[in-house]
Amino acid sequence: MPAPAFSIALDWACVSNVDHQDTFSACLTLRNTGIDPIAPGWALYFNTCRKIVAGSAANGFNIDHVNGDLFRLGAAASAPAWQPDEVLSIPYQGHYWTISFTDAPLGFYLVAFDGAVTPLGDPVIAPFALPRQQHRGPNDATPLDDDAGRFRQNAALQLLAPADVGRITPQPVTAVFDAATCTLSRTSTIVCGPGLGNEAALLQTILDQLPDAAGVQVELRIAGDGAAESYDIEITATTIQIAGASAHGVFNGLQSLRQLIDGNRVPLGRVADAPRFAYRGLMLDVARHFASRDTVLRLLDCMALYKLNRFHFHLTDDEGWRFPVPALPELTQVGARRGVALDGDVCLPPSFGSGAGIDASPGSGFYTAEDFIAILRHAQQLHIEVIPEFNLPGHARAAIVAMRARHDRLLAQGDAVGATEYLLDDAFDTSVYESVQLWHDNVVCIALPSADRFVETVVAALVVLFRTAGVALRTIHIGGDEVPHGAWVGSPACQAMLVQRGWVDVDQLRADFLARCQAILARHGLAAAGWEENALEGGQPSGRFANGALQVYAWNNAWGGGQEDVAYRLANAGYPVVLANAANLYFDLAHAKDAHEPGYYWAGFVGTRDAFTFCPLDATATVGRTPMGATVSDAALAAMTRLDATGSTNIAGLQGQLFGENARTPERIEYLAAPRLIALAERAWSPDPHWQDQDAVARDWNAFANRLGQRVLPQLDATLAYGYRLPPPGVALIDGAMHANVALPGLALHYTLDGSEPTPASPRYTAPVALGDFRIATFDTRGRKGRTIHFDQQGLANA
After folding, report:
1. Each residue of 228-244: b (16+ CB within 10 Å) or e?
2. Cα–Cα dist 334/328, whole Å
């Protein structure tokens, strides 16, 4: 007789965030919707980003922490069978709070008493409708981003006339245009200087989208002695000339020309442009959830449109290893598979709601050599440098588990020597620690010679991939962040090395490991990069890797945390620094305090305006609020380190981060990335706005918001059809009429009054509407719809 197919309905609700200090209460409701009882001994597994308080589950149930964000729910051993249609209610408490759908538990699966696994998916999540569900306790001063709140914020914006909206993004150094225009066409002649075949091909692609007509000639050439990416455009009635200091400069000029085309007309004028910062990057994490080759290529295309030139490829982490190392096949055979293995093979556990199934899991997957080479070559065509990252010594569980599987395989084959060749963990380690992501075994044993051999082999594999692609590899990012306190303390191998070297602190071990990694890279002619922790000792800059030895990515700068100025301290100490500030440039964080907005908010909420208003060389010019919405004191601001003359020259540039915990789909990646990456590009490329007061900030934001709504996003629709975030409308009931507005003036709002969903064919909102069953949404030029905002006939908002 076949095993019964279990079916369970799952419902989850946040009950309250305010009953206890820094804990929340929630309730999981389960109903057996199948036709068979579920025998005692079953367990329900799920992922949650909020650690559950041990022993807090009620009604005879227990919730245990397995590892990482995986938890196990079970009933008492004496519990009877779970009968069909029987409802189980499990109240419990968790640490911190849950104020959004992102915070809810996900990826449930049932393991029956006999080990059979039934995937169950995600629960139905109750709305966050009450204040106790929407706020993080009495200290939460961040206002809710509800319909009325958005309306008030948007009311500060003014719709600009099209003639007053900038034509080029990022804003160039200088641009002057006439009212007169010339014509570009599909058959316009291209005159191309040497070394510009790639750029001529791009230009032809642009021209192919235009109608046939008598068009002007376009001339591309390398000329000038400015910054390598600088360019000049001169547009006359007969000719468009683009001169760049390099092929990359010409490429940048073509991206600006693309934005000047209206139909097939181009305004006469001149553009002289150069970037403010040499490093203008975006990081994509494909370890937490895998992103396909096509998804990465689309992101690169979007980056290139706005002159971003560094792609930080976060390829490994605790939850996945995504590129092939031929000498170590387990890295992808084990480290790239996530779920519950029923075939006896080893894989990684489900994380971030990726579920029990392995092959269909968004947590499974890796790039073949062909995939990786295609990404590298595409990036090269776009003049984007790829900086691969494999993260060590923390955030390394995927590699550790894979190399333990390799060890066990070879040991079973009788190869005891080969088994330890690449081992990354000390089997006798009794260290007790918990990482930020709740792992207890994710740190490499850095005293093992096999750890160095592993690094050497992985670096060599990357070198081969880049060489095969014909693409220069200049820098490898080796991670180094968030090593939990307590790692290595109980490792006999690490303690033996401390004694051997005459050291007293595991931090000395860590610095030595970094130096060894750096030496491996140097032997391959490569520069080393890493997160800020690599350059800090006791929270202060270490002199060991300063003066160009390590490029540092400074990230942990949440306002009020005391590390707001760490980037400047590192730059002043001689480190080349990439500003990766979480409070402005973490694009995986939620846009706003709105339960529907995906993303975490540990460093605060990061909207497009937050990225736009970031002042790279003086972060205090546009001070944000703490993650809980409090203001930063004048005394704290005064105590922050400022850049000195040396430090200013050490700021290499800016980078946006898109970590993948909440990016299960390509659509989610595009939603999180844009338009925030365009705001990043504006700050990284365009001249210093010299903001001296908040009025100037508000004026420039209004101009940029109009540029996005009226020009940039419609052009992005036509060029790439990218799935950027459409901001939900602000809505308010005033004097019996519905008023609406939008955060990016120029985007279309369409509404209905009959209870149906708005479509592009619905009336466009242009003036207040009499109260009815009012539904309204933002639309792009392709007819893609954002989230619907609904007010019923009594003027009450509905989620």
Report:
1. ebbbbbebeeeebbbbb
2. 10
Residue 3 included in any domain: no
List the structure tokens of 624.
Answer: 């944000």
Backbone torsion region of residue 291, taken as left when φ is above 0, otherwise alpha when ψ lies between -120 and 50, otherwise beta: beta
Distance between CA atoms of residues 560 and 702, nearest Å: 28
Q: Which of 572, 559, 571, 449 is nearest to 513 (CA)?
A: 449
104 and 228 co-located in one domain: no
| Residue 426 in tokens | 């000390």
pLDDT digits (tens, 9 = 90+) for 345-389: 899 999 999 999 999 899 999 999 999 999 999 999 999 999 999
Closest residue by Cα to residue 284 from 410, 183, 375: 375
Same domain, 324 and 366: yes
User: DSSP letters along 38-87, please?
Assistant: B-TT-EEEEE-SSPBPTT---TTEEEEEEETTEEEEEE-TT---B-TT-E
b/e sequence 708-720, b meaning 16+ C-beta within 10 Å: bbbbbbbbbbebb
CA distances from 403 to 359, 433, 446, 476 (A): 21, 21, 14, 21
Helices and strands (H and E) in the chain: how many: 21, 34
On the question of pLDDT at 799 being above 60, the answer is no
**Do 519 and 610 fall within a single domain?**
yes
In this model, does residue 792 exceed pLDDT 90?
Answer: no
600, HSE (Cβ side, Cα atoms, 13 Å): 19
Are 626 and 749 in a shared domain?
A: no
Asked if the structure places residue 674 within a domain, the reply is: yes
Report the CATH number that the domain containing residue 445 is assigned in CATH: 3.20.20.80
Please check whether residue 107 is in contact with residue 122, taking contact to mean a CB–CB distance below 8 angstroms: yes
Give tens-digit pLDDT for 692-701. Answer: 889 999 999 9
Q: How many CB atoms lie within 10 A of CB 56?
A: 16
What's the 3-state SS for 132-198?
A: HHHCCCCCCCCCCCCHHHHHHHHCCCCCCCHHHCCCCCCCCCEEEEEEEEEECCCCCCEEECCCCHH
Question: Shortest CA distance to 182 belongs to which of 221, 238, 254?
Answer: 238
Per-residue pLDDT tens digits for 224-278? 788 899 999 999 999 999 999 999 999 999 999 999 999 999 999 999 999 999 9
Residues in the chain: 799
pLDDT in tens, 189-237: 999 999 999 999 999 999 999 999 999 999 999 997 888 999 999 999 9
Say which residues have a Cβ less than 8 Å from residue 267's Cβ, sequence separation at least 6: 167, 177, 178, 179, 180, 181, 235, 260
pLDDT (mean) for 776-797: 89
**Which of 370, 482, 537, 757 is flagged as catalytic?**
482
Distance of CA 231 to the CA centre of its chain: 31
> Is position 699 within any domain?
no
237: containing domain = 174-273
Mean pLDDT of all residues in 723-740? 96
Same domain flag for 359 and 323? yes
Both 110 and 156 in one domain: the answer is no
Whole-angstrom distance between the N-terminal and C-terminal Cα of the chain? Answer: 46
Domain with residue 226: its CATH number is: 3.30.379.10
Per DSSP, the three-state class of 34 is coil
Cα 632 from Cα 620, distance rounded (Å): 10
Reply yes or no on whether 482 is catalytic.
yes
**pTM to 2 decimals?**
0.97
C-alpha pair distances (Å), 430 with each of 254, 289, 463, 486: 58, 30, 36, 10
Residue 596 CB contacts under 8 Å (≥ 6 apart), including other chains: 100, 101, 728, 787, 799
Q: What is the CATH number of the domain that holds 129?
A: 2.60.40.290
How far, CA to CA in Å, does 115 sit from each of 44, 74, 178, 341?
A: 12, 14, 74, 11
| 313 and 461 belong to one structural domain | yes
* Pair 570, 644: CB distance under 8 Å: no
Within 10 Å of residue 281's Cβ, how many Cβ atoms?
28
In the predicted structure, residue 313 carries a pLDDT above the cut 50: yes
Q: Domain check: are 211 and 295 in the same one?
A: no
